[in-house]
Amino acid sequence: MEAAGIGKKTGRALAAAAMFLCASLAAAQPAAEGPIKFVIITAAGGASDQIARLIGERLTTLTGRTVLVENRPGAGGNIATQFVARAHPDGATFLVTSNNHTINPFIYKEAGYDPERDLMPVIQLGAGPSVLAVHPSVPARTLKEFVALSKRKPGSLSYASTGLGSASSLAGELLKVSSGLDMEHIPYKGGAEAITAVLGGQVPAIVTSLTSAGPHIKSGKLRPLAVATPQRWPGDPDIPTMAESGWPDCKYEVWQGLLAPRGTPAAVIEKMNADVGRVLAMPDVKERFMTLGYRPVGGTTEAFRKMLAEDRTQVAQIVKRVNMHAD
């Protein structure tokens, strides 16, 4: 019996030693020196794609390493995220993602990844507002008038979003439960489809990013009612916030961020954070971000980690409050 006990203890010790050795060998592996791949959760042409390509171009010039952009849209970002989560953590593959990263695990039965366990924060790229805008035919010029209209004519209003579980859909549902707004949610597969439906008059309203709505607001084809940010957006200071319109709980920013597979060496994360931070500080990059409806953020990896944790907390509260499910 004693010999058997010693054998079990020895076996456990050997197993632990083997796991430690494997982990040490993995950590000691040199970082990749070839091209860097940015995997994007959306199709080409969207804000995430444009931001990734802009940063990739500047990084290529700055570091001498080519940055390739690979679009892997689908399942609300789950496909791209799963791909990066399973990639070799050698510093060659990164994920450019948005709010879907924290939202999906709450609304999908199987998102296919754990946002805290499977990926490591590198740097927050940008943040910007969702905006509630309406077709010019809608007889409401303010958010209060829009809410009153929905109550006078129950079931007459609906809003398009860029997809179930997107930042815009959470902002829209948060507004509904906060204000008592009677408005049906119609999710589309992306910003282009949602915008087209509202411009064509099929749907009277939309909650989307200023990236998508901005040009149509400037042309007068859409009328903005409010943004879901704590303060007015510097690029469109005439648009009031949902909070100052009477609903202080309606604050939910759209963010863009860069993450790496779990196990990526700390030195690689630190260098990428520093290099991207330098890119975000470039005047022309700042200007381009603003035209896309974002402000560049940057900052430390720890700051991004804290933001993600706060976002998960807020998302959990909103999803529970509105009972949102993707499947």
Automatic annotation (TrEMBL):
The keyword Metal-binding does not apply. It comes from the Bacteria. Keywords: Signal. Residues 1-28 form the signal peptide. InterPro entries: BUG (IPR005064), Bug_dom1 (IPR042100). The keyword Transmembrane does not apply. Belongs to the UPF0065 (bug) family. This is Tripartite tricarboxylate transporter substrate binding protein. It comes from Pigmentiphaga soli. The lineage of its organism: Bacteria, Pseudomonadati, Pseudomonadota, Betaproteobacteria, Burkholderiales.
